[in-house]
Automatic annotation (TrEMBL), chain A:
It is a multi-pass membrane protein. CDD domains: TM_PBP1_LivH_like (cd06582). This is Branched-chain amino acid ABC transporter permease. Keywords: Amino-acid transport, Cell membrane, Membrane, Transmembrane, Transmembrane helix, Transport. The keyword Transmembrane helix applies. It comes from Muricoccus vinaceus. The lineage of its organism: Bacteria, Pseudomonadati, Pseudomonadota, Alphaproteobacteria, Acetobacterales.
Automatic annotation (TrEMBL), chain B:
Residues 33-375 form the Leucine-binding protein domain. The lineage of its organism: Bacteria, Pseudomonadati, Pseudomonadota, Alphaproteobacteria, Acetobacterales. This is ABC transporter substrate-binding protein. The keyword Transmembrane does not apply. It comes from the Bacteria.
Length: 285, 412
């Protein structure tokens, strides 16, 4: 009974990990709590739908194009609005991005309605589910776990092991100094925000064939994902990935033991972690 | 400047007259104005089935009622309760106390419906509920101020559930939305399954709103080995369940009973996924000439979407209410909600949405219900051509017998 639920928990955990990864990257580099992350996740799914229905571009194309398009939207947001708030308290960034999220959701709701649009998984990933011995897992869900895992590792490698990542980390510690070395820090920050937004959009495209593509799909996720980021430690990239997968598992198991509490269990854990380790499980105090 | 006595007296006489004029004018207008409040889900999971479309349908009813020709003004206001019962009752109170709303129509989401149900009784106002589903509104919780218009959980259980059991689906597992509506729908369907000799093997309740992944619940349903998996939820929740059930291949060995699904849900799912599902509604736009006429009138204002049964119910309810108002006069209609409801119950109903019908003493509006099967993509001729009629459940069988509801208004 528990083994299949653990696998399903991993699938949900993959989404939590991808979304909290983007949030952690943005918070770590920009010190902005990006509340528009859920809306950008939703936009990723909608852009995939538009690409398919308006331009005939299938899933695989959308997987690359949609994060680029939504990421470009992120560049505009960052340049026009968010960049003005870096010197102010976190709260202003949170309020701005929360407001943006409400506006974006409202526009999509008015245009596309609330019950959602159909989006089918690609032909290569449909068909008979994979037999894992103890359960039948749809091919598409297996793909989501693998894809999310690969993207998480790749992001971590870029930030921890490459020169670009080193610049990024240095810029968060002391931006003026890095700028003095001739690195264009504002541009790097803009691109970091775009990358974080692109990760959200990528998660959106991955989610489109599983969940109904509807304007509320992001806000359903985002509160949970914030809890994941808080538990993992704000800004900790590895922490948010591990916590994302782990909390997906916890939630999955709760659905067997006491399903009514499955929406709350993550917040109970968050409360406990905040009391015992205020900086989060992987955060630096 | 000198003022003579006559001018002074004349001016003094004119002051109260002038001051009084607009006041009397406003009161005269208010006395002839009926205010309808459409309280519904404008932003959440049920928006497409009711929401702005319900407002459009109520406005259409105002136009079709012809009350303007009798000098009656009708004002329509709208409110979004966001599926929160506390917000629903706050808006209802404000509307009745401060804004002079005379009747509240629609009230989606059973928990909100039950909250407003209490408010209208306390204030002697009126609720004409179209989208809320719980059969408790005309059962143990019934009151003289509410009419339950379009459908209810008992009717859904009886029509869709009954058809499933008759077709051999005698063991069930429920996936239920964890609030008033889901509980009522599971209870009514369980009652019916028991009566027809079937068994319920288990059920799982999912948090509402905010659940997007149903795979754990579907897996539990699969493991139960029940012949039928009953979905006692609605809107986006049901859409996600059906989508994910197809993904997990649940429908290969088990049957899915979508206990509440409406045309806008099918539109969102797409026929590829929704084909073959059995569902029950009391209105479908393509049922007959009259239903098509109503749809053609409103679809332009609804962005080309066809009205759902919830929206059509708002039309029908508003139309009948205005008939009663025209019959008894505005002043009397505004004097007391319960008295107006008595008049509405005494008058037969007839409209393009449901045809001829009536309202029972317990507040249940009566009309036939229909069991449909969702067409395959090949059978469908175009957008919104979604249903095949399988069976018409006649009026006398469609709703719970009045004696079984336990409504205290009914004298036995």
């Amino acid at each position: 009974m528990a083994a299949p639920q653990i696998v399903l928990g991993l699938v949900n955990g993959a989404f939590y990990a991808l979304l909290s990864l983007g949030l952690a990257v943005i918070f770590g580099m920009l010190n902005v709590i990006n509340f528009a992350h859920g809306a950008q996740f939703m936009m990723g799914a909608f852009v995939a739908w538009m690409l398919l229905n308006w331009a005939g571009i299938p899933y695989w194309g959308a997987l690359i194009l949609s994060p680029l398009i939504v990421g470009a939207f992120g560049v505009v947001l960052e340049r026009l609005m968010i960049s003005r708030l870096y010197k102010m308290d976190h709260l202003y960034g949170l309020l701005l991005t929360f407001g943006l999220a409400l506006i974006i959701e409202g526009v999509f709701r008015n245009t596309f309605g609330s019950s959602g649009l159909p989006y089918s998984p690609p032909a290569a990933l449909t068909g008979a589910p994979v037999d894992l011995g103890f359960m039948l897992l749809p091919k598409y869900r297996l793909w989501v776990v693998v894809a999310a895992f690969v993207v998480c590792i790749a992001t971590w490698l870029v930030i921890e092991k490459t020169r670009l990542g080193a610049y990024l980390r240095a810029a968060t510690e002391n931006a003026p100094l890095v700028q003095a070395f001739g690195v264009n820090v504002p541009r790097m920050v803009t691109l970091t925000y775009a990358a974080g937004v692109g990760l959200a959009a990528l998660a959106g495209v991955l989610a489109a064939p599983i969940y109904s593509v509807n304007p509320a799909m992001g806000s359903n996720f985002i509160i949970t994902v914030f809890a994941v980021v808080v538990i993992g430690g704000m800004g900790s990239i590895l922490g948010s990935v591990i916590t994302g997968f782990a909390l997906g598992l916890v939630e999955g198991l709760t659905r067997v033991v006491y399903p009514e509490a499955s929406a709350t269990v993550i917040f109970v854990i968050m409360a406990i972690v905040l009391v015992a380790r205020p900086a989060g499980l992987f955060g630096r105090a | 400047m000198t003022i003579d006595r006559r001018a002074l007296l004349g001016g003094a006489a004119a002051v109260p007259l002038l001051a009084g004029l607009p006041f009397n004018g406003a009161r005269a207008q208010a006395n002839n104005t009926i205010k309808i409040g459409v309280l519904t889900d404008m932003s959440g999971t049920y928006r497409d089935g009711c929401g702005p479309g319900s407002v459009t349908c109520v406005r259409q009813a105002v136009q079709d009622s012809g009350v303007a020709a009798r000098g009656i003004n009708v004002e329509v206001v709208q409110g979004d309760h966001q599926n929160k019962p506390d917000l629903a009752s706050t808006i209802a109170r404000q509307w009745i106390d401060r804004d002079g709303v005379n009747v509240i129509i629609d009230v989606a989401t059973s928990s909100c419906a039950l909250a407003v149900h209490g408010v209208v009784k306390e204030k002697n106002s009126i609720m004409l509920n179209s989208t809320g589903a719980t059969a408790d509104l005309t059962g143990s919780a019934c009151n003289p101020n509410t009419i339950h218009w379009t459908y209810d959980t008992w009717m859904l259980a009886n029509s869709t559930g009954g058809a499933m059991v008759k077709a051999g689906g005698d063991t069930w597992f429920f996936i239920t939305a964890d609030y008033a509506f889901g509980h009522a729908l599971e209870r009514d369907t369980t009652g019916l399954i028991g009566k027809q000799g079937g068994r319920v093997l288990g059920s799982v309740k999912h948090p509402f709103p905010g659940t997007t992944d149903f795979s754990s619940f579907l897996l539990q349903a699969q493991q139960s080995r029940a012949k039928v998996v009953g979905l006692a939820n609605a809107g986006v929740d049901t859409i996600n369940c059906v989508k994910q059930a197809a993904e997990f291949g649940l429908t290969r060995r088990q049957k899915l009973a979508v206990l509440l699904m409406i045309a806008s849900d099918v539109h969102s799912l797409g026929l590829q996924t929704a084909q073959g599902l059995s569902l029950s509604e009391t209105y479908y736009w393509d049922l007959n000439d009259r239903t098509r006429r109503l749809a053609n009138k409103v679809k332009g204002d609804m962005g080309g979407a066809m009205p759902t049964m919830w929206q059509a119910g708002c039309y029908s309810a508003a139309l009948h209410y205005l008939k009663a108002v025209a019959d008894m006069g505005v002043a009397q209609a505004k004097a007391g909600g319960a008295e107006t409801v008595v008049r509405m119950k005494a008058m037969p109903t007839d409209d393009d949405a449901f045809g001829a019908g009536s309202i029972r003493q317990d507040g249940r509006k009566l009309h036939p219900s229909y069991l449909f099967e969702v067409k395959t993509p090949a059978e469908s001729k175009g957008p919104w051509d979604y249903y095949k009629l399988v069976r018409t459940v006649p009026v006398e069988e469609a709703f719970r017998p009045i004696a079984d509801g336990g409504c205290p208004l009914v004298r036995t």
